Amino acid sequence: MSQASVRQAEIAIEQKHVDVVYARLADMRVEAEQMRDRGDQLAHGARTEAVFEQASMLYERDVMVRYANRILQTLDSEHEGLVFGRLDDTTGEVLYVGRLGIRDADFENLVTDWRAPAAAAFYQATAEQPMDVVRRRVIRSSGQQVIEIDDDLLMPGSQPASMPVVGEGALMATLNRARGDAMRDIVSTIQKEQDEAIRAPWRGVTEITGGPGTGKTAVALHRVAYLLYRDRKRLGSAGVLVLGPSTAFTSYISRVLPSMGEDSVELRSLGGLLDGIEAARIDPAPIAAVKGSLRMRRVLKKALRDSPPGAPTEMRIMYRGEVLKLDAQDLAKVRRQVHGLGRLPNRSRVDAAEALLEALWRKAESYEGFHVKRQDLLVDLGERIDFHRFVVVWWPVLTATDVLRWLGERSRLAHAAGQTLSAREIDQLSASWRADGWSVADVALLDELRTLIGPPPKRRHRRAVEDSYEPGRRRPENYEDYSHIVVDESQDLSPMQWRMVARRGQYASWTLVGDPVQSTWPDPAEAAQARDSALGKRTTRRRFALRTNYRNSAEIFELAARVVRDVASDSELPRAVRETGIKPQISVVADASMPGAIRDAARELLGQVDGTVGVIGSMTSIAKITEWVTDVDPERLRVVDAIEAKGLEYDAVVLVEPGEIVAESLTGPRALYVALTRATQRLTVLTTDPAWPEG
Ligand SMILES: Nc1ncnc2c1ncn2[C@@H]1O[C@H](COP(=O)(O)OP(=O)(O)OP(=O)(O)O)[C@@H](O)[C@H]1O
Prior knowledge:
Blueprint (H helix, E strand, L loop, with lengths): L2 H44 L4 H26 L6 E7 L4 E5 L3 E2 L5 E5 L6 H5 L8 E10 L2 E9 L16 H6 L16 H7 L6 E6 L5 H15 L1 H5 L3 E5 L2 H7 L2 H4 L6 E4 L15 H8 L2 H11 L9 E5 L2 E5 L1 H13 L8 H18 L7 H9 L2 H10 L5 H7 L3 H8 L5 H12 L5 H14 L6 H8 L16 E4 L7 H9 L5 E6 L9 H12 L5 E6 L1 E6 H11 L10 E4 L6 E4 L5 H15 L4 E5 L4 H7 L8 E5 L8 E7 L1 H7 L4 H8 L2 E9 L8
Parallel strand pairs: 2-4, 7-13, 7-14, 8-9, 8-12, 12-13, 15-16, 17-21, 18-19, 18-20, 20-21
Antiparallel strand pairs: 1-2, 1-5, 3-4, 5-6, 10-11
Helix pairs in contact: 1-2, 5-6, 11-17, 11-19, 12-13, 13-14, 16-19, 17-18, 19-21, 21-22, 23-27
Bound molecules: adenosine-5'-triphosphate (ATP).
C-alpha cells in the first residue's frame, strides 16, 4: 500500500471510533436533557417534601443539572475535535484522549478526559521515557470529520508489523497554521515540559517563566482548566481570576477556556480590575513608573488628610445668644485629630462630629461670662440640624475617583506630595489627572484609595444584597476572595499593582507567568519586593522554566535575540524550533516616505500570509500610523503600540521605527524585544536609521 492509502485507511479507522463517540454523545445529550427535566421535577417535588429530604433532593438536582449542562456546553462549544488523541501501548491496549471523558452504555471507556491521570502519558511519554506507549497519535478533526492524523513512534522495538506510523508531527502542523484574532487551545499538542507545569498541584505559588512564545499563557490557561477539573469544589466556588496586561490581551485569550468547557473563570485586565472602571489609556513610561511606585502610598495617604475641595473653612453657630466660631486653623486641627484616630475616613463621620462639638465647647469655655455646661452644649448642638448640615459638607463621604481627580490641581498634589515627588513629577502627574478618563496605572491608585477611604456608609437594602451572595451568582463588587489567581506578564506589574492584586487573593494560591527579559518595569528589585509581600508567607513555591519558542520562526527570533543580547544571558533566551527559510526584512526609509512604506509593507505581508498582520509602532506615533493605514484591509490588519502588543501574536508584523520604541521605554531594548517577537512567519522592520540594528 502507498503511504497515502495507508494514511487514508488509518483515518478511516479513527473516523469509525469518532462516529461511535458522537453517536454515544447524541444519546447522552438526550439523557442529559431528560436529567435536567428530572432535576426540575425534583426541585418542584422538594418544595412539598419533608425538610430533611429537601436538602438531599436539591443536592441531587444540582449535581444532575451541573453534569447535564457540562455535557451540553462541551458539545456546543467551539473547539476542534472532541477526540484528539490515541495511545497504543505495549500490551495492545488502546486509549483515546479527548476533551471529555465518555463511556458507552456498558460503562466501557470510549474517551478519557485529557486532564485525567490516565491521559497524562499522552503528554509525558517521550522516546527516552516512553511510559509503555508504543505509538502516540494526534487526531485532527473538522467538526465530526477526521481530517488528519500525526503519529510519534516512541518504542520502535515494540512496534507490531500491523501498526503503521503516519504524518509529519502534529506540533509542526499546528504551529504552521495561520493565526486569527483569538488564541486557540493546545490540548492536542501540549509538550512534556508544559504538561508538568499544567499538572502541578494547586497549592502555594507556581511560577512559570520562559521567553516569548514558549506557551506560558497557553500553559497557564490549560492549568486553570486542569485545576478546576481536579479540584472544582475547592477552587470553583470561590472563583479563579486570570489577570492579563490589557483588554486586547484578555480578548485575545478569551476563547481558550470556553473551548475547554470552562466558562466560570474571570478574565480581567489590569485596567479593568476595579469594578466600574475600564481604563485603557497607557501613561508615558516615566509617569507610569512614578504612579506605580510605593512612594504613591505616602502621597495618597496625605491627600486624604487634606481638607476636601469645597469644604467650608469656617464654622459659625449660634448658641444661647452667642456666636461660636471655628476658624480655618481650628478646623484643620480638628481634622488632624480625627485622622489621628486611625479609622477609615468614610467610617469617621461620627468621630468628626464629636471632635467638632468638643472644639465648640472649648471655644464656648473661652468666652468670658458665658456659662454653659459641657454636656448641655454637646447634646443641644449635637441635635441641631444646622450642625449636621455642616458636618456633612465638612466631612463628606469620599470616593476614590473624587480624591484622585482633586490631585489634578497642582497645588493640592504639591501639598500632598511634600518631598516625596519632585516638582517635575508633580507637574506631570497633576496634568495627567486633569486629562479625560483614567490610565491603567491609575487603577491601582484608585484601588489603594478605595481601601484607605473605606466603603461608603451602607444603606440597609444594600447590605441585604451583598450578604445574600451565593457561589455561581455574580460576585459582589470588588470581590476579594478568589481561590486561585493567575497573573500573566507578571514581570510588568508595578508595586502598586501587586498591592491591588494581592488584595484579591489573601487566601488564594497563585500561578505567576512571566519573562524577566521582556520586563518594561524599570525597578525590578522594588517590584520583586512588592510581589513577595503580595504572596505573603506562602511557603510552597515551585518553578517551571519553558525553553522552546513555538511562536517565532528561528529567523525572526534570531533578530529579536540580537537586540537583547546585552541585557540578557543566553540561558534566559528560548530556542525557536521552526525554520521557514524567510529572513526578516529590514528597510531603511526616509522620514517623508514612511507612511507609504508602512502601507506597502502591510499590503505585501497581507498577500503573503493567511492570518492577521500587525503593525507595531511607538506609543507616540501609533495614532499617526493608525491614520496612515485606515484604508488597508481592516479585516486582517491590526495596529498596536509596543506596550499593547504584549502577549499578542500575528502571522506577520510590520515594525515601525525600532529606535523610537527603545527611546520611549524605560527598559529600552526589552520593549523592542517584545515587539520583535510577535510574528509567527514574517517580519518587516521599517527604520530611518541606516545603522539599525547595530546603530
Ligand atoms: N504545545 C503547543 N502546541 C501548539 N501550539 C503551541 C504550543 N505551545 C505554544 N503554542 C503556541 O505558541 C504561541 C505562543 O504561546 P503563548 O502566547 O502562550 O506564549 P507566551 O510564552 O505566553 O509568549 P509571550 O511571552 O510572548 O507572551 C501560541 O500561538 C500558542 O498557541
